[in-house]
Design brief:
This protein is mostly beta strands and 276 residues long. It has two helices and 22 strands. The strands form five sheets. Strands 2-11-14-13-12-15 form a six-stranded antiparallel barrel. A four-stranded antiparallel beta sheet has the order 3-10-8-5, with no helix packed on it. A four-stranded antiparallel beta sheet has the order 7-6-4-9, with no helix packed on it.
Length: 276
């Protein structure tokens, strides 16, 4: 397009805009939750083994099966030693997890347990955590747990082992599961434990560009592109924490792209296009 000398002499601005139009936004503060992730297995918190007190007995009648919920004192089986009959009862309330009681089979005080009962039907998710995360965990921190076949349940940190496994450098953590659902022992589960919160400068994930030069964000200053190396941190809800490289309020390209290079002229458009 030809521009008249008269227009230039009069100081009229050039009609053709300079640079490509880019959508921009301000880097702003965002609060991220510090999350520790734990994967593990559902295990009974406590299990009671039920055996008769005498020797030389045989199972005469079985009144409960694995999977049954029982109350303390409930009759589980009837044994006999010839002329006498002995009742086997549940010492605690809970869920029967296993049974070897078969009519006609022997039962003794030192043999295999006739019944195993998960006390109060209480379960833990037991998993391993890297050393870097163990220090973030404390008893009673809340957890969101997802169990295979049972869905989402609430939980809390119940106990953290005082040692780590020497080869893997992982420590064991026990998460109490708060649920009345029927859970299967050895089911796999995954927990997210919120250990705190940090607030800092953040930009959308779309503003991050991963290049051979490292992780960068494209900043607009005086309507030109500046490429900034950044150190990223936590991620949540499509936002990325910027620990170093960008200050709050700086104008960044909302969708970083390889087509924009250092020094390119641009026309900022959109949220707070103050690329001065």
């Amino acid at each position: 397009m030809m521009i008249s000398l008269a227009a230039l002499a009069a100081g009229e601005p050039e009609a053709t805009p300079k640079g490509a139009a880019v959508t921009v936004l301000k880097a702003s503060k965002f609060c991220f939750s510090n999350i520790v992730e734990v994967s593990g297995l559902v295990l009974p918190r406590d299990e009671q083994q039920v055996r008769p007190e005498k020797f030389g007995l045989k199972v005469a009648e079985v009144l409960a099966d694995p999977g049954d919920s029982v109350t303390a004192g409930q009759m589980l089986a009837r044994l006999n030693d010839g002329n006498n009959s002995i009742n086997v009862t549940a010492p605690v309330a809970g869920t029967i997890s296993a049974s070897t009681a078969i009519v006609g089979s022997p039962a003794s005080a030192k043999g295999e347990a006739l019944f195993s009962i998960i006390t109060k039907s209480e379960y833990d998710l037991v998993g391993m955590v890297p050393m870097r995360d163990i220090g973030k965990l404390q008893a009673n921190q809340t957890a969101q747990i997802k169990i295979s076949g049972a869905g989402d349940v609430d939980g809390r940190v119940r106990r953290i082992a005082p040692t780590v496994e020497p080869n893997s450098q992982l420590g064991q953590v026990f998460l109490a599961i708060a649920s009345n659902r029927r859970l299967l022992v050895n089911s796999s589960g995954r927990a997210l434990i919120k250990t705190g919160q940090s607030c800092g400068v953040a930009v959308p994930l779309t503003a991050i560009l991963y290049s051979t030069a490292g992780t960068v964000v494209q900043v607009v200053r005086r309507d030109r592109v500046e490429t900034r190396r950044v150190e990223t941190g936590l991620m949540a809800a499509g936002q990325v924490e910027i620990r170093e490289g960008i200050q709050e309020g700086e104008i960044v390209v909302a969708r970083a792209g390889a087509l924009l290079r250092e020094g390119d002229p641009v026309r900022p458009v959109g949220g707070s296009a103050e690329g001065k």
